[in-house]
Amino acid sequence: MSTAFAHPHHAEATAHEAIPDEVTVDTATIAAITEIEAEVVAPAQHARITWSRPDTGLWAANYGGYYGGTVDRQGTHFFVSDTFGQYVGDFRSLEEAQQRLAERLHVLLPDVRR
Q1: Which residues, 6 or more positions from 68, have their beta carbon under 8 angstroms from its beta carbon?
Q2: Would the pTM of this model clear 0.70, i.e. be above it?
Q3: Exposure string over 51-63, b if 16+ CB within 10 A, otherwise e
Q4: Residue 87 forms beta bridges with which residues?
Q5: Between the N and C ends of the chain, which has fewer C-beta atoms within 10 Å?
Q6: Where are the domains of the chain?
Q7: Which of 76, 75, 100 is nearest to 89 (CA)?
Q8: Nearest to 88 by CA among 77, 106, 100
Q9: Can you tell me the distance from the alpha carbon of 13 to that of 85, in angstroms, rounded to the nearest whole number?
């Protein structure tokens, strides 16, 4: 069904009245939606991570051919920084530190595939 209007501005005003109120979404919700969408669109197609050990107590990640970050052992702690040099965390085991960096890279660089 269509409605004819004598004045175009009247049609424009009527069309705007049909628009629902604006919806706002917080940053955490957007991040969660982005992660879910990435898994639905491309599940298990993340780049492969390989590790090198350039020095004692230092592991460097290669993420699909790109620098992925480091795990740096200081005493009994493993400090992780990502591909951009951002602090990821302080972990009690090498395995946990490497896993957390891998998770971070999958989110930060979802388009890297190899």
Answers
A1: 49, 60, 61, 62, 82, 83, 101, 105
A2: no
A3: eeeeeeeebbbeb
A4: 81
A5: N
A6: 8-41, 49-108
A7: 100
A8: 100
A9: 51
